[in-house]
Amino acid sequence: xxxxxxxxxxxxxxxxxxxxxxxxxxxxxxxxxxxxxxxxxxxxxxxxxxxxxxxxxxxxxxxxxxxxxxxxxxxxxxxxxxxxxxxxxxxxxxxxxxxxxxxxxxxxxxxxxxxxxxxxxxxxxxxxxxxxxxxxxxxxxxxxxxxxxxxxxxxxxxxxxxxxxxxxxxxxxxxxxxxxxxxxxxxxxxxxxxxxxxxxxxxxxxxxxxxxxxxxxxxxxxxxxxxxxxxxxxxxxxxxxxxxxxxxxxxxxxxxxxxxxxxxxxxxxxxxxxxxxxxxxxxxxxxxxxxxxxxxxxxxxxxxxxxxxxxxxxxxxxxxxxxxxxxxxxxxxxxxxxxxxxxxxxxxxxxxxxxxxxxxxxxxxxxxxxxxxxxxxxxxxxxxxxxxxxxxxxxxxxxxxxxxxxxxxxxxxxxxxxxxxxxxxxxxxxx
Length: 431
Fold this sequence. Notes:
The chain is of the alpha/beta class. It has 13 helices and 15 strands. It has helices at 13-25, 40-49, 61-66, 83-92, 107-120, 134-145, 162-170, 183-199, 242-248, 261-265, 272-281, 367-382, 394-412, and strands at 4-9, 30-36, 57-58, 73-76, 96-99, 124-126, 151-159, 205-211, 298-306, 309-316, 323-330, 333-338, 343-348, 352-357, 418-419. Helix 4 (83-92) packs parallel to helix 5 (107-120) and helix 8 packs across helix 13 (394-412). It is globular and about 60 Å long.
């Protein structure tokens, strides 16, 4: 077949990244042919970047979907609360879909999308990118080999990092549960999916505790102002100082936030003056102790998979670096890993241990998984994907969403066990 034609709904950070992977690494197999974004600055810049004609660039979802089917497939990279509605409209037009995670905090919506995708006979893939990385694929491969025996328990943690949590979950798009989703669903959807994938059996019940422990006005230092650039008296010693994080940090100390200028101003390659203006007026310049955030900054989830199999996931915002640690304990051995390093420690009881290196592409964060996801999706579309076993179709993601929402119910009830199998939400009526 010819090139796979792809439309992108939402060209923010993730949408632009996915589209760019297509342009720079898969231009012989696929092409971006249409885009949609409500922000006129982003829309114009991305249209220019991909050399798209005006009639293939849409400033509203109504105009985009009203134009009919424009491509073979669509990347849906909009905000969390929009995923279900946008996916339904895409299914009505028979698009194959790659949908940014999470699908929805409402389980009935997830199941409705899965059913409609089957009826339409189209692919609906969810962006659980960690499954596509060599590091986590190697863990799954080791477990499938049988060399380690049966899984007994898994201890897994995500250290989000203080600056990352402040950016995304205090100042940023995922700061408010009603407007977005609980932080466990928004941030740790990857992690719970991994645990479900490794266990390869249904979770029976969940208990969870957690809270918003630190990022609130009670912990504001004396002299802290509502904005970092409002004459804050503790600015010089505050690790969350927006000016330092987004603009002035030297290269050797800078976190990835220094390179998020587009998220501050909406423009690619914004001058420093525009960044300062954004910090004076926009959300990213607010004091982290004086925002309207309400999502948990720490949480522990205990999962019972039956037959003596358990898993524990810990999420914490207050760490210095971003990394995940995994300890899989089996009847004949164990796997120990930290995904900031490209190697795993595998111990076989009575036989000693070994180090296994996992090849990583030279990308930061989970960009390796992002890259491999795009590659797999394009191969799926053009019929060249040899093994579909681990493709994250929506049926594969629903169990992890159920675990997370059951965990949220447990957390709000003080940690009482919640039966995952009985956890459902009503399907809302779309306007």
